[in-house]
Amino acid sequence: MSSEPISAAIDALRTANTITVLTGAGMSAESGVPTFRDVQTGLWAKYNPMTLATPEAWEDDPALVWAWYQRRRAMLAAVEPNAGHQALATWARTADVRLVTQNVDDLHERAGSSDVVHVHGSLFACRCDTCGREHDAEVSDPEGDRVLPPECECGGLVRPGVVWFGEMLPQNAFAEATARSEACDVFILVGTSGVVYPAAGLPHIARGAGATIIEINPDETDLSDACDITLRSTAAVALPAMVDALASSHDT
Ligand code: APR
Prior knowledge:
Layout lengths: L2 H12 L3 E6 L1 H5 L6 H4 L9 H4 L2 H6 L1 H16 L5 H9 L4 E6 L5 H5 L5 E2 L2 E8 L5 E3 L21 E5 L8 H13 L2 E5 L11 H7 L3 E5 L12 E3 L3 H17 L1
Parallel strand pairs: 1-2, 1-7, 2-3, 7-8, 8-9
Antiparallel strand pairs: 4-5, 4-6
The structure holds adenosine-5-diphosphoribose (APR).
The site of adenosine-5-diphosphoribose (APR) has 19 residues, from helix 2.
């Protein structure tokens, strides 16, 4: 990481009252969060995740879909938040830092961040497929490729609280993400390729409202041109470096 972009980032952050951070899959990469490819081993190798993560699959075979999500939750339970997640949680104790994530994992929460907006839902917040009541998720590795999902009091089935292919984003979460994008002085994008809308539209909303946009990503993305400052580094390296440098700049 060259010192120039980081000092530009510190300059912008020093005077910011409100910071909004949008995270994507790259945020959790250094935690070793299992990708679809990692999950599709053993008895799962014969299934295609693109067809499992759909309302149609749930309709046809809820036990198969539930077991696959149990497998994903169990694999996630075996990894830890990384230094980037920790840095964001630490920073929010002394500054108005608001998180929006496209990730369905719980690593921000496990690092100590509260009030995280999950625009694509969460593996751990389940709900009834009929009445919508919220239910806790079970974390146990399934023995086979079918496990009947729990039943809700209303007789419906408990489904994973993630946004499946072809589904709408949760309305309240997206409204809150939009409000956080409109209201910030600095908007930081971490580890997102910026190709999946409407989440990829959030930095444009922030920019339109006058925010400075910072990107943290080792690679160029579709959003890079719309950013004011780019840190070509990883989440677990750049975020602690930036938060530490900001804290020292306040001390001087
Ligand atoms: N630190 C920061 N960024 C990283 C790191 C890292 N260690 N490793 C990879 N990246 C970057 C990649 O360069 C890429 O730009 O993270 C980005 C990951 O992009 P995607 O895999 O497309 O993830 P994301 O942008 O979160 O995808 C959005 O698409 O798959 C759907 O619903 C799913 O929420 C997801 C959405």
